[in-house]
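User: Reviewer 2 asked us to show a designed sequence for the structure in our supplementary figure. I'm pasting the structure tokens here. Could you produce the per-position amino acids so we can include them in the response letter?
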């Protein structure tokens, strides 16, 4: 009987203790930033009416939330009409709250201590898109990983994940702490893989070549990656290995900053990447590649070479001349490499505008630059508006053939429908092949170059003075015939055409591989063989995207005169005085001319032009060679132009050219 009484007393005491343990005093555990218009509050227990907006207000100005959202009774997401980044030193006050056991929360105010969430505060740091064959010791499901680089915890509840155009909402209550990782996959992934932090989405499939965006509630893209199968190491592209970012400080770098996981499991979800290294860097500022006109003619789109940032609210830092008022600016895509500028008035056809951004634009690595660029509504190019200015048709194993074009008109040209035709048979120019690949380049400004090629990756290294911003990648750009061929530019008509051959090169070249042919004068006929010369050795035998190394600028304004520059030449293809340029000007058009080179004793050495029809003014060249292409010795030589006009007037001009070493 005594034992039974003691048992009853023990059970009674135990029940009292359990009841006391159920009494939890409600407290605020954390207030966390979610975006510029929202924050979350986490309690230590389940609360009643946790989404009642009248239980919360900003202390300084009694600002109540517009709405509240809660899927868990210990967590609430508050949304405000005011930008919370403007009131960082205020407090969020919580009152009249009770928990599910009717225990009251002591009215309290908590300091809002949060910094604005910036692009790449959270980054996409790893992804698994190919699980066939399955990875070692990892669930055979697609996943990707987020990493919080910032110094504050961030609530990513109801943020958006965009996977190649399909959007998913991150579950309420999803938190990512400072410098931690979170794995995002479907529920089945986490049934066999344990991780301290995760977010479950409906089943999704990452494409082999796709993109992922992390978008805040303010509709700002915080992280973006456009990945490719080419990022994998050789042998790991067939599946079962994740892609990992190498250096988290340069998240906008693409192929150079991503590679296959080195972890034997096939990946490192929720952990520091196995390929982590600080060896990857970025020291190149963004380049404005193109400005295109919107269909409504009241907007322009700026396209940059990489992810680029500038403050779109600072409209006064952007000027357009002739003056146009800017209505607004917004980012056009998740990658943040395009900006749309909306205008109050229409862009006028045929007008060349100049846009300048005086506030620095910068990339993910904080490389910054200011910029100015011309734009306008393009005119349809006519014959002679665009010329073939340089051509490489015998490239080396480490370069690619290219054709450089130059707009010599005073018009903005629409080149969207301009094609390049080619044929190895110079006698069959009607049976042409065309480069069909589309490019994002739409306009060509006066005096602007473009360089068309299949792959530009080695052009800058091979030709260090070249301008990468002028390169246009055309995937089906041909391998041009090494000996001879025909190329042309075609729009609504043939704009320019050229028959090239290897014997147009400087005759004393030891090797023509990797040596481009450059046009000497942009205003002399394309088919004038004397208007072409091998690129200078000092330019490493090529000048894609810049003024030709052998460019001539000799001028004369006097009728009946001949100007020679330079008068002393050293034809060794070093880019310095390799040839003489003879600028002439006759009284009338329709002139038939002969041009000769004599030595000091009057012996004819070369007949440069034989009864050719010359325009009233133009440019001739001589490269110091004789009739057989042999370079002449050091000495003094006489150039003679004999011409007869359409009115039967005879003209004879002489000049002296000296060849030195």
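Assistant: Here is a per-position design you can include in the supplement:
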């Amino acid at each position: 009987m005594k034992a039974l009484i003691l048992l009853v007393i023990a059970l009674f005491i135990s029940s009292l203790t359990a009841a006391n343990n159920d009494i939890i005093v409600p407290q605020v555990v954390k207030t966390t930033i979610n975006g510029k218009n929202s924050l979350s509050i986490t309690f230590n227990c389940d609360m009643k009416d946790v989404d009642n907006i009248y239980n919360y207000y900003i202390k300084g100005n009694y600002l109540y939330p517009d709405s509240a959202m809660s899927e868990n009774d210990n967590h609430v997401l508050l949304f405000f009409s005011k930008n919370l980044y403007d009131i960082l030193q205020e407090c969020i006050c919580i009152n009249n709250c009770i928990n599910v056991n009717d225990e009251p929360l002591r009215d309290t105010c908590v300091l809002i201590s949060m910094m604005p969430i910036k692009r790449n505060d959270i980054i996409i740091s790893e992804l698994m898109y190919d699980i066939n064959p399955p990875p070692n010791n990892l669930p055979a499901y697609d996943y990707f990983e987020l990493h919080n680089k910032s110094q504050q915890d961030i609530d990513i509840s109801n943020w958006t994940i965009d996977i190649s155009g399909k959007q998913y909402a991150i579950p309420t209550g999803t938190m990512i702490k400072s410098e931690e990782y979170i794995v995002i996959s479907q529920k089945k992934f986490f049934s066999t893989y344990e991780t301290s932090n995760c977010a479950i989405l409906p089943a999704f499939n990452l494409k082999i070549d796709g993109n992922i965006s992390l978008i805040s509630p303010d509709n700002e893209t915080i992280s973006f990656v456009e990945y490719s199968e080419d990022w994998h190491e050789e042998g790991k592209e067939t599946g079962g290995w994740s892609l990992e970012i190498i250096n988290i400080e340069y998240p906008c770098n693409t192929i150079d900053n991503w590679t296959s996981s080195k972890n034997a499991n096939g990946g490192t979800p929720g952990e520091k990447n196995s390929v982590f290294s600080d060896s990857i860097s970025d020291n190149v500022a963004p380049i404005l590649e193109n400005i295109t006109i919107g269909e409504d003619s009241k907007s322009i789109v700026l396209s940059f070479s990489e992810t680029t940032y500038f403050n779109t609210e600072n409209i006064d830092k952007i000027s357009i001349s002739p003056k146009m008022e800017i209505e607004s600016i917004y980012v056009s895509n998740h990658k943040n490499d395009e900006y749309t500028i909306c205008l109050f008035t229409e862009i006028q056809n045929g007008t060349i505008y100049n846009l300048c951004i005086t506030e620095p634009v910068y990339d993910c690595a904080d490389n910054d630059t200011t910029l100015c660029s011309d734009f306008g509504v393009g005119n349809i190019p006519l014959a002679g508006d665009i010329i073939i200015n340089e051509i490489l048709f015998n490239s080396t194993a480490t370069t690619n053939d290219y054709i450089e074009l130059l707009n010599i008109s005073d018009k903005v040209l629409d080149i969207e429908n301009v094609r390049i035709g080619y044929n190895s048979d110079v006698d069959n120019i009607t049976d042409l092949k065309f480069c069909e690949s589309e490019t994002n380049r739409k306009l060509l400004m006066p005096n602007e170059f473009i360089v068309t090629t299949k792959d530009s990756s080695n052009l800058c290294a091979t030709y260090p003075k070249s301008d990468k911003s002028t390169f246009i990648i055309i995937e089906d750009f041909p391998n041009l015939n090494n000996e001879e061929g025909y190329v042309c530019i075609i729009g609504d008509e043939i704009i320019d055409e050229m028959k090239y051959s290897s014997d147009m090169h400087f005759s004393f070249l030891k090797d023509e591989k990797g040596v481009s042919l450059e046009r000497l004068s942009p205003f002399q006929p394309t088919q004038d063989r004397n208007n072409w010369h091998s690129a200078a050795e000092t330019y490493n035998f090529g000048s894609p995207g810049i003024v030709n190394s052998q460019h001539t600028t000799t001028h004369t304004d006097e009728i009946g005169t001949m100007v020679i520059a330079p008068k002393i030449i050293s034809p060794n293809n070093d880019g310095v005085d390799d040839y003489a340029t003879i600028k002439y000007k006759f009284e009338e058009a329709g002139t038939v001319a002969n041009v000769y080179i004599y030595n000091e004793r009057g012996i004819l050495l070369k007949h440069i032009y034989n009864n050719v029809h010359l325009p009233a003014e133009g440019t001739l060249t001589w490269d110091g060679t004789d009739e057989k292409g042999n370079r002449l010795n050091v000495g003094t030589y006489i150039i003679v132009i004999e011409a007869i006009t359409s009115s039967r007037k005879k003209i004879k001009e002489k000049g002296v050219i000296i060849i030195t070493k």
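For the response letter, you might also mention the following. The CA atoms of residues 182 and 649 lie 88 Å apart. Confidence is low (pLDDT under 50) at residues 6-21.
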